[in-house]
Each structure stands twice: as C-alpha cells, then as structure tokens.
Amino acid sequence: MPRKPDEKQESVSNLKARFTEASDFNLANQLQEAEYKEFYENNRNSRRLSSQDHKMSQEEHKKVLDEYLNSLSEIERKDAEFALQLQEELENEERLARENQAKEDEELARRLAQEDRVGSSGLALPTNRVGPSDETIRNNDGIPANEADLIDFGQSE
C-alpha cells in the first residue's frame, strides 16, 4: 500500500506500545468478563440450590405434618374404640344390676306373698330368709313380722 504524504510515520516503539496497550485492554476485558461470568454462575447455582432446598424442606414439612395428623387420627380412632368399649361395659353392668334388682324384687315379693299366706292361715312355713335364725320372725303378738316392720327408721318420737 502506498502511503499518503500527509500521514506521519509512527515509530516502531509507538506501535509496540499501542499494540501492548490494546493487548492489555483485551486481556483485562477478558478477565473481567470471566469474573462476571463466574460470579453470575455462582449466583445462579446458589439460587438454584436454595430453591431446591426450599422445595425439599416444604416436602419434608408436609411429610412430618401428614405423619402427625395420621398419628392424631389413629389416637382418635383408638379413643373412640375405647370409649365405645367402656360404654358397652357400663351398659352391661347397668343391665346386670337391673336384672339382679328385678330378681331380688321378685324374691322379696314371693317371700312377702308367702308370709301373707302364712299369716292368714296361721301356719308357719320355713322361708329362705337370711337372718339371725331360721325361724319366722314374729312380733310381740306372735304374728309374723313384715320386713317393713324390721327396718329401723330411726328413733320415733
């Protein structure tokens, strides 16, 4: 290429200095770009890891909560079974108590009826009475006493 007359010729040292300066600028630019890229990648990886950890912690929390709720449901179910069992036992006890009371009432009614028959006929029949003796209990007049006569209601005035 031919040179134009108005162009100044640069010295080799100036060209070398400009070339070195451009080379240093390019190297600094590349290093800065690499630093930005590394920082960006680290930041991205950190956020990705944080996001994954957050999702994992939410899943773990949900799992623990589900286990807790399941255990509460199991406790509730067992409590309901136990309450039902207790209720059935109480109802059976009440039924047995009513049946026993009915039998005792029947026995008492039978004895009272038997005593009424004995009292009206004048004969003393043995009874299944539990008491101080096996004889029919009689009052002072020699008449068989009712059980109501034997009950002490306290001092009379």
Automatic annotation (TrEMBL):
<feature type="region of interest" description="Disordered">
    <location>
        <begin position="91"/>
        <end position="157"/>
    </location>
</feature>
<dbReference type="InterPro" id="IPR029311">
    <property type="entry name" value="CCDC50_N"/>
</dbReference>
<feature type="domain" description="Coiled-coil">
    <location>
        <begin position="11"/>
        <end position="117"/>
    </location>
</feature>
<keyword id="KW-0175">Coiled coil</keyword>
<feature type="compositionally biased region" description="Basic and acidic residues">
    <location>
        <begin position="93"/>
        <end position="118"/>
    </location>
</feature>
<dbReference type="Pfam" id="PF15295">
    <property type="entry name" value="CCDC50_N"/>
</dbReference>
<dbReference type="InterPro" id="IPR039303">
    <property type="entry name" value="CCDC50"/>
</dbReference>
<protein>
    <recommendedName>
        <fullName>Coiled-coil domain-containing protein</fullName>
    </recommendedName>
</protein>
